Amino acid sequence: MILNTDSMKPIYVQIAEWLEGEILSENIKDEERIYSQYQLAEMFTINPATAAKGLNILADEAIVYKKRGLGMFVSPNAKQFILTRRKSQILGQMIKELVMEANRLEVSKSELNGMIQQVRRENEEE
Amino acid sequence: MGVIHGVDLTKSYGKLKAIDHLTFEIEQNKITGLIGRNGSGKTTLLKMVAGYLIPTSGELKVFSENPFNSLEASANSILIDDTMTFSDSFTLVDILKEMTPFYANWNSSLALGLFDYYSLNPKQPHSNLSKGSKSTFNSIIGIASRAPLTIFDEPTTGMDSAARKDFYRALLKDYLEYPRTIILSSHLLSELEGILEDILLINQGTKRLHLPALELKELAVGLRGNAQAVISFVEGKKIIYQEDFAQGSLYVVLKRELVQQQLEQIRQSGLEVLSVATDDLCVYLTAKTKGGIDDVFKKG
């Protein structure tokens, strides 16, 4: 796994998002142990303090929880939580940007809706 | 806990102050990057810490001792740089074998393992190595020494990109297994910042910044777009760097906290909000002259 060091996103955010991806795809399931900061540091060649900060983001949102002396575990319903939040935040932001770009390009409301419908249809055909 | 304490540390060469009243502390078992432009004093500072040079004034303590004449500090630290020389009567493998009595934590199997991996010629004398291979060989000594204070001064000079990546990974892996205090000096911040915990940025012998690498990444923000719009948002604020990007367009870098509240508004007004690579930020913060290289070419 390659991290994008030039990205607008700090590395620890990329780590948190990668872990969320692992939970969404159920590579790590509810109540299973998640990677430790040292495992993540090794996997991504990053400082363990950076990895810890990525894990802390998930802990702050209660996506993972700490079991004393045993490490971090995935909370029940973590997947559902991530799905809901990504829908409202990430998808919301993308749509905002989409609308802004459409305005810059002088694309009308109906034209934009048409473009979205078209992509949808193409995806369904595949 | 601090392993190195410097208070008002100064080192002069004649009239030139290579290190100028520097006060700093390096914490135990962290990987710290010492960053600065050419001639900023990095090597002088590291040589004082390693006990090779005596400070002109100020106080320097390494493991609570004055490193210049302390056996204790010397036995617990190693400085790896490109001026290391070894007698030509030793082959490369002999050199690695002879390290055992000097460094209490010397990991012989790791040294030989890395040596094999890099396919260096065991029979070769050190002085015949190419620039990159010399750096590679010296870095093996630095990693395998497992010295409680391990210092690398520009360790990747001459190494190709694959060798540099291998070095950073080998160093990090061994650090995870055996945590110790590590200082890396470099001007190639972008490729090593991922493994750093702290960054100490120096400029003309003085401290410019000392903070966690994570914070440096988010310290500044770049705004780019219509010059008047940019100016309206940054007017009266301290600008770290600015560049005329294109006709009527401006790129400005400033501290993120100064515009944090307005970022959404800035985006709405059609300006680009960009993250500033730590590499670039360090260059801006240590610029000797106002403006950039482009100004040299602007005539009249």
CATH architecture of the largest domain in chain A: Orthogonal Bundle
pLDDT average of chain A, as an integer?
Answer: 90
State the assembly state of the protein chains: heterodimer
Low-confidence segments of chain A, given as residue ranges, are: none
Q: How much β-strand is present in the residues of chain B? A: 25-35%
Please report the first level of CATH classification, the CATH class of the largest domain in chain B.
Answer: Alpha Beta
For the largest beta-sheet of chain A, the strand count, sense and barrel status come to: 2 strands, antiparallel
* CATH homologous superfamily heading of the largest domain in chain B: P-loop containing nucleotide triphosphate hydrolases
Total number of β-strand segments of chain A? 2
Radius of gyration of chain B: 22 Å
CA-CA gap between termini of chain A: 28 Å
* SS content category of chain B: alpha/beta
The CATH architecture of the largest domain in chain B: 3-Layer(aba) Sandwich
Helices and strands in order:
The complex is a heterodimer of chains A (126) and B (300).
Chain A: H1 11-24, H2 37-44, H3 48-60, E1 64-67, E2 71-74, H4 78-104, H5 109-125
Antiparallel strand pairs in A: 1-2
Chain B: E1 2-13, E2 16-27, E3 31-35, H1 42-49, E4 57-62, H2 71-75, E5 77-80, H3 92-98, H4 108-117, H5 131-145, E6 149-153, H6 161-177, E7 181-186, H7 189-192, E8 198-203, E9 206-212, H8 213-217, E10 220-226, H9 227-234, E11 239-246, E12 249-255, H10 256-259, H11 263-268, E13 272-275, H12 278-285, H13 294-297
Parallel strand pairs in B: 3-7, 3-8, 5-6, 6-7
Antiparallel strand pairs in B: 1-2, 1-4, 8-9, 10-12, 10-13, 11-12
Helix pairs in contact in B: 4-5, 5-6
